[in-house]
Amino acid sequence: MDLLRQTVKQALQSDGKNEAKRGEHPREEAADADRLRHDAKTQQSRNGDKRESLENLESPCTEMGKLKKHRPDYQRRDTGHEQHVCDATRSWPTTVIGDASGFDILDRVMQQRFEFMKTRMVRVLNTLLLCSLAVAQGLAQEHREQAMMPTVLITGSNRGIGLEFARQYAALGWHVIATCRTPDRADDLQQIAAKYPNLTIEKLDITDHAAIDTMAKSYSHLAIDILLNNAALLGARNKQALGNLDYELFRRILDVNTVGTIKVTEAFTPHVIASRQKKIITLGSAAGSIQMIHPPPDFYAYRASKAALHLLMKNVSLALAEQGVLVGLINPGLVDTRGLSAIGPDDPVPEDFKQIVRLIRSGALELTSPEEAVGRMIDLIQNLSAEQSGTFLNADGEPLPW
Ligand SMILES: NC(=O)c1ccc[n+]([C@@H]2O[C@H](COP(=O)([O-])OP(=O)(O)OC[C@H]3O[C@@H](n4cnc5c(N)ncnc54)[C@H](OP(=O)(O)O)[C@@H]3O)[C@@H](O)[C@H]2O)c1
To answer: Which residue's alpha carbon is at the smallest distance from atom 40 of ligand 1?
Structure first.
């Protein structure tokens, strides 16, 4: 503001000096005035077009042009004397008409300033508008991408095969709803969730039917491309042999593996039907195949629960075929979800797995790693055909007998 005042003062002083000079030499002044009038006319006619075009430019000249439009008396007073006054608030010079009074100049400077501020404001607003448009477009794009991402819901995803499915689908960019009984203690799953924002952890015990219904309702807006029935209970081996059957455990195993799995399937079928991929995938087991059973018979409850589950999934495939739902029933093979291959010769071996560890050590049995088994199953699920729906498949895609 000080600079502005100084600039105006200088302009007034220099104007005053000219006035004084003119008063000292009246004849020269008259001649000067004639010459200047002539110059001004020629200049005016020469610059007529130029002024017009200057007025259209986004510059102080435009502001001057506008000023002249608003105050036609400036045009009248314009003698052709033009001085360049540097407005302290800007980096370019502005044109001031020679014989205007101090107030006029101040008025004009203020007008110019106002116009300048207006232009600047318009620019800032334009920039803000463009920025908000860009942000809005970005958000819309993100929303579109999210909407394009297929969704998988996995049961029992805090450990073993379920955990690996969650990890791999999350890494593939899927929207993963990873369910488990106790999220607070699911450290491995929490770590994956921290790495992949596209993974959501949900608490779900598949024997809790009310909780299943509540969750299905809370996700009623969401299409689920793959429902992955993974959760299961194996139970202790020694409590599942003839002569020592634990019926409480028996019921629990059936409750989880058979009843719980069909309940989840029933509750989320509408979500699957609403999706693009429309797949219900269930992990069965060769242990549930009557044709593949070998002595000595063990895991009575677990085998029975899986055999019943296989039959249920066959029914589901028939029931939903018309709606285009593919039902995959997969035996993952022997997958080392308990770290049995890593047990050293001096390490204690869990009672239930002594036989398997013996076979592994003898080289008669090789377990697959969860990474490899899940990678294979994801390929199979991805390419699952209508012909394979409702059949019992090995993880490598080979059909297995019931
Ligand atoms: N591993 C194999 O060699 C093999 C072979 C053939 C078939 N399968 C099948 O593959 C699937 C996964 O096997 P896995 O070896 O990864 O099993 P796992 O290591 O024993 O894990 C079982 C998962 O199921 C969950 N679960 C148990 N009861 C549940 C309930 N009531 N509600 C919700 N979740 C429950 C467990 O959660 P908690 O931690 O809370 O108990 C755990 O996350 C199972 O269906 C199994 O039958 C595995």
So the answer is: 181
Task: Assess whether the C-beta atom of 162 lies below 6 angstroms from ligand 1.
Answer: yes
Whether 235 lines ligand 1, by a CB cut-off of 6 Å, is no
Q: Tokens 């060769």: give the residue.
A: 286
Q: What are the tokens at 55?
A: 């007025």
pTM for this predicted structure: 0.70
The alpha carbon of residue 160 and the mean position of all alpha carbons in its chain are separated, in whole angstroms, by 28
Distance CA 266, CA 212 (A): 10
State whether residue 86 is helix, strand or coil: strand
Pocket test for ligand 1, best of 154, 285, 299, 313 (most atoms within 8 A of CB): 285
Helix (H, G, I), strand (E, B) or coil at 53: helix
Q: CA-CA distance, 364 to 143, in Å (whole number)?
A: 52
Half-sphere exposure of 145 (CA within 13 A, CB side): 9
Q: Is 191 exposed, middle or buried (0-12, 13-18, 19+ CB in 10 A)?
A: exposed
Nearest CA to ligand 1 atom 36: 156
How many angstroms separate the alpha carbon of residue 259 from the centre of ligand 1?
Answer: 15
Q: Is the CB of 337 under 6 A from ligand 1?
A: yes
Q: Is 313 in the pocket of ligand 1 (CB under 6 A)?
A: no
> Exposure of 374 by Cβ count < 10 A (0-12 exposed, 13-18 middle, 19+ buried)?
buried
Where does 135-204 show beta strands of DSSP type E? 151-154, 175-180, 199-203
234 CA distance to ligand 1 centroid (A)? 7
The pair phi, psi for residue 265, each rounded to 5°, is: -60, -45
Distance (Å) from CA 145 to ligand 1 centroid: 32
Measured CA to CA, the distance from residue 66 to residue 92 in angstroms comes to 17
CA distance readout (Å), 273 to 19, 173, 276, 361, 398: 92, 22, 8, 46, 26
Decide: helix, strand or coil at residue 317: helix
Residue range 255-286, pLDDT digits in tens: 999 999 999 999 999 999 999 999 999 999 99
**pLDDT tens per residue, range 45-63:** 554 444 444 344 444 444 4
- Report which ligand 1 atom has the smallest distance to the Cα of 287: 6
Domains and CATH numbers, the chain: 50-120 (no CATH), 149-333+368-394 (3.40.50.720)
